[in-house]
Write a structure and sequence with these properties.
- This protein is α+β, with helices and mostly antiparallel strands.
- The protein has a domain at 113-172.
- Helices cover 53% and strands 9% of the residues.
- It has six helices and six strands, in the order H-E-H-H-E-E-H-E-H-H-E-E.
- It has helices at 2-19, 30-41, 51-61, 81-88, 113-131, 137-159; strands spanning 25-26, 65-67, 72-74, 109-112, 167-168, 171-172.
- It is globular.
- The termini are far apart.
Amino acid sequence: MERLEMALEQSEDGWTRLDEDHEHVSGPAAAEYRRRTAGAAVFLGRTVQAKASVSRLLAQTDTDIHHGEGMTCVYRAETAACRKERLLLGLPAADGPDDSLCRSTCGNLAYTDRDIAEHRTRLPVLLKEAHDPMTPRPRRDRAAAQADRIRSLIEQHETSRPEAVHTNGGQVT
């Protein structure tokens, strides 16, 4: 029952952010994120009296969207990079995403404005570490690579907004 309540709350929150707050979503799974969120928004509520009803309603309303740190997984087992990695390691396939095996190249990833806000907060920390002469060279290199990746994510997110973004000599206006 608690899982059903959580799924319904997350679905309602996602729909409210998309529909009323006009939250932007980017990334390879952005369209699927919007589709699943809109589909779950039509749930009108039911009286749950039996355990079987909970399972049935959960199957109907669970969007299988998982918000992580700076990313959102719109889980689909067939395309999940983490699932493929688990199988390659000889581990059993999981029912959902595995954050520890998540890959930035996964087709299940979407980035909400909330995710991008987390990246904007993390970027200055990485840049500071990348340019700190007291930080060991391998850590500086890793921080610089992560900062480049985050900058690229932020740029892709902003340039994919529906309201036309114009550039002027490489500057976003």
